[in-house]
Design a protein that fits this description.
Length: 342
């Protein structure tokens, strides 16, 4: 693909704002609705597009842990912070296949591979390509999060069979510089443009609970919703505070505010998979149930998210059984199946 097409696919934060379908004021107004009104509206949108009792199970594996040169204030893998996370070698392909097979046996349909890089070197990308091919051969959807991509790297991942590329925007543009200084948000948007141009589905989310205001959360959701098209997969993370990172000790986000964020993501991106990601371990079952009602239909499923804890598969299964929720079979974006109780 020539560079002119690639450049056309790249949108800056300013470009997104100019062609906005959802204004920050509109999303703020959603967040400020009475709680019952908001989740009722979100649940109605959810039912129009998805089986309300089906949840996609994804598993995330760190294939390269620690030693990242970036300064993301939330991340224990940054080399400059003293968090007890060691700089480890990249996993072997065989080890990744073993983990992927175990995830599939436990019900996961998507397997995500994450590496603590600013961006992959070509020799590292070639090993990831081997992993993607091997995981896809197991019948799993594949996702990778490897940092910022150089010209031509997205096309290589597409040729290997990568289904999704995860690259989060983290937070709203006006708050971004308070969280990360070693890159700009437009750097992130540039990689998302490369991913889109290569024909790979976009997985793009953010983190709440980093000291931002409600309006900042609204601005982040509006930014996702105004991408053209909006991401197929939207992971919403509640900050997991790790000692040694700059955000350790930040004020905890009220969990009902987290539910509101999920509801707004569903309303503004009706066909996206909205994923409960980091922070679920600290959430009571009742809050997770509200998130599912408000439109979350995907979870990271397993014992660990890169370097932080995640609810055990047994606990997840018990909650799903209690709620009458069942695993979603494979990719279901935009597909609506009739629920028995509709």
């Amino acid at each position: 693909m020539d560079s002119s097409n690639d450049n056309a696919a790249v949108a800056s934060a300013a470009d997104i704002a100019r062609r906005a379908r959802w204004s920050v004021d509109q999303v703020t107004a959603l967040l400020e609705l009475p709680f019952n009104d908001l989740i009722h509206r979100a649940h109605g949108v959810h039912r129009e597009h998805f089986d309300p009792n089906a949840v996609q199970l994804s598993t995330l594996l760190s294939i390269k842990t620690g030693g990242c040169p970036e300064d993301c204030g939330y991340c224990p893998q940054a080399a400059r912070y003293h968090t007890g996370v060691d700089n480890e070698d990249m996993l072997a392909v065989d080890a990744v296949v073993v983990a992927a097979r175990a995830a599939k046996d436990k019900g996961a349909t998507r397997f995500c591979m994450g590496a603590a890089w600013r961006g992959p070197k070509q020799r590292d990308l070639e090993r990831v390509i081997d992993m993607v091919k091997a995981v896809r051969a197991l019948g799993l959807e594949t996702c990778a999060t490897l940092g910022m991509l150089k010209q031509g790297q997205a096309e290589q991942l597409k040729a290997a069979g990568l289904d999704y590329y995860n690259h989060n925007l983290d937070t709203a543009p006006e708050f971004y510089g308070k969280i990360v200084t070693t890159r700009t948000q437009d750097d992130r948007l540039d990689t998302l443009g490369k991913v889109r141009a290569a024909g790979i589905h976009v997985c793009c989310g953010g983190i709440v609970g980093m000291g931002e205001t409600r309006r900042t959360r609204a601005a982040l959701i509006a930014q996702f919703a105004n991408l053209d098209p909006y991401p197929e997969s939207v992971p919403i993370n509640n900050l997991v505070q790790v000692a040694g990172t700059p955000l350790h000790g930040a004020a905890q986000l009220d969990l009902f505010e987290f539910v509101r964020t999920i509801a707004c993501a569903r309303i503004t991106m009706p066909e996206a998979m909205v994923r409960l990601s980091a922070g679920r371990q600290e959430m009571p079952d009742g809050i997770q149930a509200l998130c599912f009602f408000a439109g979350a239909n995907s979870i990271f499923y397993g014992d660990k998210l890169l370097t932080t804890g995640n609810p055990e598969t047994e606990r997840d299964r018990a909650l799903m059984d209690k709620l009458g929720i069942y695993p979603m079979p494979g990719e279901a974006r935009g597909e609506r199946r009739e629920a028995e109780n509709r």
